[in-house]
Amino acid sequence: MATLREWAQGARPRTFPNAVAPVLLGSGAAAELGGFVWWKALAALIVSLGFIVGVNYANDYSDGVRGTDDERVGPMRLVGSRAASPKAVLRAAVASFAVACAAGLVLAATSTWWLVVLGLCCLAAAWFYTGGSKPYGYLGFGEVAAFLCFGLAAVLGTELSQAGGISHEGVLCAVGAGAFSAAVLAVNNLRDIEGDARNGKHTLAVRLGDAKTRVFYMGLLVVPFLVSAALSATVPFAIFSLAAVLLLVGPGMAVRRGAVGPRLIAVLGATNAGMLVWSVVITAALFFN
């Protein structure tokens, strides 16, 4: 039976910035419209964290029962390592999704029921990433889903639930957050490219190949800083978010120079750190604009 520490590792806390950053940005965009509501921001954070923990456990379950997690370099896999039974991990995924849905229903009831539709789409995306008979994550569409769910949906859903509308600043923030989330997944899949190819998991990294995936990752990192420049036209202090590039120079160079395996785990962590710092600065700029 898995220990509490192993369950915590299985939740993959290093991915949590992907959940926190879009809620910060969406709340900042709502504040810029004069509609920030603190308890709705907290509820949105519960939704976002519930979804990311749920999708991490769901991936652990689905990949584990398929055997594609038997040889991995990255974080703890509960099913693949035999630390927990598939049924236990599936229950943990369902419980996490249930918490997210409960908080989402509160937001929908106090703002707009369109959030239910958005939530159901994200729930389906979370499960069918590696679940079902034809998981789209095995077909190379994972980065697209990350961009849509932890970029557009999370940022704009947070803004909509608080301010009752969507601004162009919110859209720009959503694009930046989505690009960061896609970059995190891209480098994660780059790390696992050889094992995934052997196991028939045709991620985008497997389809593009090593060299092109590295270029793709670098391109994704450029997008948030283009967003910073665009935002600074209406939110002047957003320009200070360019400082986050300092956290990404090292990871970018490591990827460019051919880092593989465990060396990419550090790149993954630094990419998440860069996303979080970028989001905090943008959010502060929006609040004080």
TrEMBL record:
Top class in the EC scheme: transferase
EC assignment: 2.5.1.74
Record has Cell membrane as a keyword: yes
UniProt catalytic activity: an all-trans-polyprenyl diphosphate + 1,4-dihydroxy-2-naphthoate + H(+) = a 2-demethylmenaquinol + CO2 + diphosphate
Pathway: Quinol/quinone metabolism; menaquinone biosynthesis; menaquinol from 1,4-dihydroxy-2-naphthoate: step 1/2
GO molecular function, one term: 1,4-dihydroxy-2-naphthoate polyprenyltransferase activity
UniProt keywords, alphabetically: Cell membrane, Membrane, Menaquinone biosynthesis, Transferase, Transmembrane, Transmembrane helix
Domain of life the protein comes from: Bacteria
Protein location: Cell membrane; Membrane
TM regions (residue ranges): 37-58, 88-107, 113-129, 136-157, 169-190, 211-231, 264-288
Gene Ontology BP term (one): menaquinone biosynthetic process
InterPro entries the record matches: MenA (IPR004657), UbiA_prenyltransferase (IPR000537), UbiA_sf (IPR044878), UBIAD1 (IPR026046)
GO cellular component, one term: plasma membrane
Membrane topology annotation: Multi-pass membrane protein
Family assignment from sequence similarity: Belongs to the MenA family. Type 1 subfamily.
PANTHER family assigned: 1,4-DIHYDROXY-2-NAPHTHOATE OCTAPRENYLTRANSFERASE, UBIA PRENYLTRANSFERASE DOMAIN-CONTAINING PROTEIN 1
Function statement: Conversion of 1,4-dihydroxy-2-naphthoate (DHNA) to demethylmenaquinone (DMK).
NCBIfam families hit by this protein: menA, PRK06080.1-3
Identification of the protein by name: 1,4-dihydroxy-2-naphthoate octaprenyltransferase
Provenance organism: Segniliparus rugosus (strain ATCC BAA-974 / DSM 45345 / CCUG 50838 / CIP 108380 / JCM 13579 / CDC 945)
Taxon lineage: Bacteria, Bacillati, Actinomycetota, Actinomycetes, Mycobacteriales
